[in-house]
Task: structure prediction
Amino acid sequence: MNPALQALMPARIERIVRGVTDSFGSAYECDYKFSYPMVINDEGMTELVKHTADRTLGIGRWFNERPTMGGEDFAFVAREVPSALFWLGVGDGTERTSYPLHHPMFDLDESALPVGAAMLASAAVHYLEQA
Result:
């Protein structure tokens, strides 16, 4: 979750693999591929989303999520333009909506969809108000 550390990983992994294979007298081939970059939220856009949530949903309806190791193609967008990725809670507390994204049983409480639309529309308006 640190771009500088990520850049060091291919050499570190190759050093470990080389050490293990050398100790057994075997050969190796290491082909490390960088895939999805990390999502790095722009501080200004993150503050805009927090402000939007406070004004649209009410104070205290958002929280900072700890970083995760999940990959997200939005990271490519965030590298090019100031961005902030946020999660919209779509569970209603029942078992039906308790499964995570990409799970075959994933289902959402559709009443969350207007909330998400309101957040996106409000964020756009607040962004334009700042311009």
Observations:
- The CA atoms of residues 17 and 23 lie 10 Å apart.
- The radius of gyration is 21 Å.
- The chain has a mean pLDDT of 93.
- Residues 35-130 form one domain.
